[in-house]
Amino acid sequence: MRRTRPLAGGRFRFYIAVLLQLGTPAPALALLHESLAIDPAFEVVEPEELSRLVAAADAGGQSRLAVSLAEQFLRRFPRDRDRQANGLVAARLMCARLGREADAVALLDALLREAPEHALAPALQQARDAIVLPPPAPRR
Predict the structure, then answer these.
(1) Taking the complete model, does pTM exceed 0.90, yes or no?
(2) What would the pLDDT profile of 62-77 be if each residue is shown by its tens digit?
(3) Long-range contacts of 76-85 (CB under 8 A, 24+ apart)
(4) Domains and CATH numbers, the chain
């Protein structure tokens, strides 16, 4: 019996890494889409590569993908140095493109609690302060 999925996933991970190293994020994103179509559980292994894909998806206007990748990053790499940066990208897109203001507020609040002295704390706080949540629904 052939085991194509693990081998294909390994090759895809390798080629995505190579494409990112070559500075060609658009083909890396295309390969990521193909990988996810074959195996929805596909994940990039290295946090640096995942951060680059978040940035590339954001720059390419792929907001849902960028948020999904950033959320995956936050879940998988809780102590990585890029945590606040990827969280900020996700929160910004949640508000600007996806109508997920409450999720963005919760994310920003969590990031600020985790690392109040982080270099990006002022940017996180500024983003948090800029979010206007809709008023709560009236009680009946």
Answers:
(1) no
(2) 999 999 999 999 999 9
(3) 76/43, 76/47, 76/50, 77/47, 77/50, 80/47, 82/47, 82/48, 82/51, 83/111, 83/114, 83/115, 84/111, 84/115, 84/118, 84/120, 84/121, 84/124, 85/51, 85/120
(4) 8-114 (1.25.40.10)
